[in-house]
Amino acid sequence: MKKITFTVSKNEITKVGNRYLYGKNTTTRNKGELIEDFLRKYYLPNTEWYKKDSVDFETGSDIEADGMKISVKSGEFTLTEKIYTFEKSDSEKSRMIEEYTRRTHSDTIAYGKVSETETEYTFTIYLITLSQFTSIVKQYAVFTTISGTNRMKLKVKRDITKYIEVL
């Protein structure tokens, strides 16, 4: 596990509801996208980068750099909607996590959070292995219904930083 922390002046970022605007970027970003952008900008500046959801989790990663294939997650997150079930059970949960592990292109997870003071935003990002990530997902993921269907996906509905820190 590697912990990365950096701060950004509030002059660089404007919060609009639960989304953010910054620099020359004219589109608003959610926290996950913001974490991904600033991880690239401050920690991995010369990286291959794809816009959100433009690369399937099976064929690419959010960031590919330094020999790592990184999937970015933040706050509450969904494992993927492409692996689903109709049955809530421990065996289905295990099957879904194993299938995700087998199919994902990424080998590293960047889990981040953003906190703020009056003058700055602080980004805390943890780089963890896929194995460490799936052990946390096994403990804390719950079944939620995919909107408009009777299918269920796995979602982690809590900040997992304190669990990562004990790895």
What can you see in these coordinates?
The chain is built from four helices and twelve strands. It is of the alpha+beta class. The strands form three sheets. A six-stranded mixed sheet has the order 1-10-9-7-6-5. Strands 2-3-4 form a three-stranded antiparallel sheet. A three-stranded antiparallel sheet has the order 8-12-11. Helix 2 (90-103) packs antiparallel against helix 3 (130-140).
Mean pLDDT over the residues: 88
Biggest sheet, open or closed, and with what strands and sense? 6 strands, mixed
Compute the number of helices.
4
The unreliable regions are: none
Shape: globular
What's the topology here?
Layout: E1 2-9, E2 13-16, E3 19-22, E4 25-29, H1 31-43, E5 48-49, E6 63-65, E7 68-74, E8 77-78, H2 90-103, E9 108-116, E10 120-129, H3 130-140, E11 141-145, E12 152-156, H4 161-164
Parallel strand pairs: 7-9
Antiparallel strand pairs: 1-10, 2-3, 3-4, 5-6, 6-7, 8-12, 9-10, 11-12
Helix pairs in contact: 2-3
